[in-house]
Structures are given as C-alpha cells and as structure tokens.
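In this section we walk through a basic example: taking a raw amino acid sequence and producing a predicted 3D structure, encoded as discrete structure tokens. The instruction is simple. Fold the sequence below.
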Amino acid sequence: MIKHLTIVTLLFFSFSVIVKAQSTLAHEVGVIFGPVAFQSDFGQRHDFSTNINNTGFGIGIVHFLNFSYNSNHETYFNEHFKVRSELSYNRTQLNHFGEWAEKKPATVGSEQLRLMEGKSSLVNLGLQLEYSPFMKIHDFENTDHSFSPYISLGTQVSFYATNISSSLGQIGTTEATFPKYLVPSDGHKYGFSNENGAVWSVTSGIGTHFKLSEMQDLLVEARFQFYNSDWIDGLNPNKDIFPENKANDWQVWLHFGYVFYLN
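The resulting token sequence is shown next.
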C-alpha cells in the first residue's frame, strides 16, 4: 500500500510543478456523486437482479486543469482536452442473487449463498484525461446552456477494505460457507478474505458538461473502472477449479456533478 501511495504522491507532486510553470492554466473544482454498480463474484453473471441490487453509492471531489480558458493560443490540445484529478469514496453492500441463490425449494447451498453478505469500501485517487471531440472549449465557455460531450481515460490507485460475513454463523465453517469458497485461492487459505489493500485501476468514461452559467457547469458521466485484483469484493474462488469467476472485479459509476470555475 505504501508503494502505491508513494507513486501516486510523486505523480501529483510532479504534476503540481508543471501546473505552477504554466501561467495560462485555469482551474475548476467540483463535486460528483451517484450510484455505483459493482460487478464482482457476488451473484450470477449477466443476472438483472444481481446488477440492480449490488449497487452502492459514491461521492468525490474533482479538479480540472483548463488549458483554454486563459490561453490565446487555440491549439487543438488546448481546445479539446482537460486534465482531471479526483479523490473519491464509494461503498457497496453485496449479496448473492440469481439462479443458484434463489433455488425453489431451497437447498443447503442456496441458503449459504443467499445469507452470505459482503461489504466493500474504496478510496480512489487518480488522474484522467478528458477529450471533447465536438466542441471547442472556448466556444463552450462562451455559450450558456450548451453541451460539451466527452470521453475520458485515466488511472487510479484504490485503497479498499472488505468484510465477508454470513447470517448462518462464522464464515469459514462448513455450516455457513458455500463449498467453493473454502478452497484455497491465489495464496489465500480460502476463496474469501476480510482484508485491506491497495490496487491499481484503469478508468474509461463517457459524459457531457452542461454550461449552467459563465462560471458554473453541470456534468453527468458513466464511468467504467477495471481493477487489477479480484479481491476488492472479498471473494476470489480458485480460478483453476471455478473458471466462471475468472474476471477481476470492476464497477460502473453513474455520477452527476457540479463544477465551479476558479479563474
């Protein structure tokens, strides 16, 4: 975790040095919030009830570097790109849904799945590059009630905390735990883990800014975040035995935001 934090701190420090050297840069700050759909080893893949119910909530603060606002040089980069830094937090409660957890009549295994619960909390810190292909940033800034669609790509370091429990009793016992989670996995004693850690993630998104007034924007964005770990939700069944759980954890965050121009 310290290694990840050190790398990100150095990146932000280097970035701040560049910012101070660029007098033409303008700054925007804002808040974002909205539902987070966690795609994990909880529930059945491609199951509607899983996707709807395993949804949490996220909130964050954002900062934009605007290369166009104070610049008289209308280069393509200045007029179509912004750099966004972010500190955000999201939390999701996770349960098993779908065919195997909702069997009728219920079996021992379906009850073990249905009564298992997970909680995952993440603090994310990172950067992303926004590209607005259709409208120059200067034109957007000077046109009230206009839209500026964009796509984004970035990276984050995420600090996570997970907790796995069961209403049937102590997790890790044969009475309370579905058999495949009792099999050793990825260096762990079991296919579940209550742990804290740090991971890298890649983000990609699509959204739009809306010009509310000269110094204020609204935004809406759907963002996909892919982690380089499968332990974010606390479950990671042995992939050699259970290939249906081979994908790493990822999430979709639909967030809304308010942005204020400082310059």
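Looking at the output, two observations stand out. Residues 2-21 form the longest helix (20 residues). DSSP finds five helices and eight strands in the chain. In the next section we compare this with other chains.
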